[in-house]
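Worked example 2:
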Amino acid sequence: MKIEELVLQAERNRRRLIDVVYAAHAGHIGGDLSCLNVLTALYYDVMNVSPDKVKDPDRDRFVLSKGHCVEALYVTLESKGFMAPGVLDTLGQYGSILSGHPTIEVSGIEVNTGALGHGLSIGVGMSIAAKMDSRPYRTYVLMGDGEQGEGSIYEAAMAAGHYHLDNLVAIIDRNHLQISGNTEDVMALDDIQERWSAFGWDVIRMNGDDMADVVRTFGDIDYSCGKPHLLISETTKGKGISFMENKASWHHGVPTAEQHSMAVEEITDRIKELEKRIS
């Protein structure tokens, strides 16, 4: 897809996300919005995945380590055809197969996640398996920046460097806010690039709010360099909804009826403008 088409798809997913969280009366909307560009790029431009090949042994793997932002993953999977129409509307209802964290009950989800700090370890295992089986698939793991306080992440980071897992890409959604406030006040991350480079990783910074930079950065990864890859994705919490942006209170916020209408209008205006430019 062209960049503008990816931007349009991300906006459509953002519009769907607002409705889903509002209807379910639950969700981690701030982090959902900050990682939505990366998810859209992964599923529409980067990864070898398809709803008709969910068991293909050579499919790329994706692990949402920051599992509380599952709503963003759900809307992305729905838009790609992994989820039947109407299923996503059951989020938050009794008997739904959907939960507040990724579940393998949903086609396209590789593993149950949500206990922060575990996703990278799973991704390391998947990447080692690909090497052992001589499979071409790659593994992508999306983490939160608040999640970086979990010690298990650094055990996994050390192992990935030791085994030279150049088929592994980890992404930190660096929106600088977690549920308790600014990440640097809660648990300072110091220089992420220096820290991960010390573990033997190929570290790249990108603007996760800019789809062109996201696509370019993924496209520039050298999968034969002998090092695992870390993308520090600089993003905005609540991206795309003006009154939510850079507000820690929207980490786990649900819009009121008035706020929902305002958000829908804001996103819809951008969608219409993009559709005019593309047509």
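The first strand starts at residue 61 and ends at 64. The mean pLDDT is 95.
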